[in-house]
Amino acid sequence: MKLGARTTPAPPLDVSTLTIDIGGTGLKASVLDRAGKMLVPRVRVETPDPCTPEILLNALVDLVAPLPRFDRISVGFPGVVRDGRALTAPHFETDAWRDFPLAQALSERLGKPVRLLNDAEVQGLGIIKGHGLELVLTLGTGAGTALFRDGVLMPHLELAQHPIHGDLTYNEYIGAHALKQKGKKKWSRHVRKTITILKSLLHYDVIYLGGGNADKVKGLMPDIHIESNQAGITGGIGLWNNDVALTLFNDRDAGTSVSKVEAA
Questions:
Q1: Judgement on whether residues 94 and 116 belong to the same structural domain of the protein
Q2: C-alpha–C-alpha distance, residues 91 and 27, integer Å
Q3: pTM of the model
Q4: Which of 4, 41, 204, 237 has the smallest count of CB within 10 Å of its CB?
């Protein structure tokens, strides 16, 4: 992550960050140390179905119960996120998610400050190098994208819901259902076509593939980087990076604000 010239004090040496990666099929979590390394192996459970806000909150409280203590929380959510609220939740198919204040609700349940961001963007914070135009494409239950310029997150584009082939959206074209239905060979061809389209659209300098299905893609060019799905957890430390916090959450004290309960 590119660092600016500000000299905000560093966080306490023992500050720890709970990171939760909410997926369409799985909920994952771990606790990170000050440097962003996992203190314990991540825990995982299946995503509830149906998955209303209340059901998800209960599942997350149970998921993180066995984890070590933490001072603050980062959450990646599969949908459009703004000001700590979930605006869309395409994998959960319920209107109850529309404009739901997830950061505030989870903060109230766990008693710690929460930062909420789109899940592909959280993963990107754990992947990017901070130079040039970097694109992250995640391949999981659906397809996610995050775009960074010189380490700065660009406005979110919900390409997952955008048509790419006839009436098929990115989610339907290269998501997990397409992989299961079409098989690895044809699905890989779809992914390669998608990358070609994104290159023409964005003219990025580098692209990273993340998510649970990234390592299943065949026939990729050598300049396409396959990244570990663990970045969906380790990227959570980036939400509390001083520069990121100032840009996304208007918080100049992310490095030291670990005691008060606040919504993202």
A1: yes
A2: 13
A3: 0.89
A4: 41
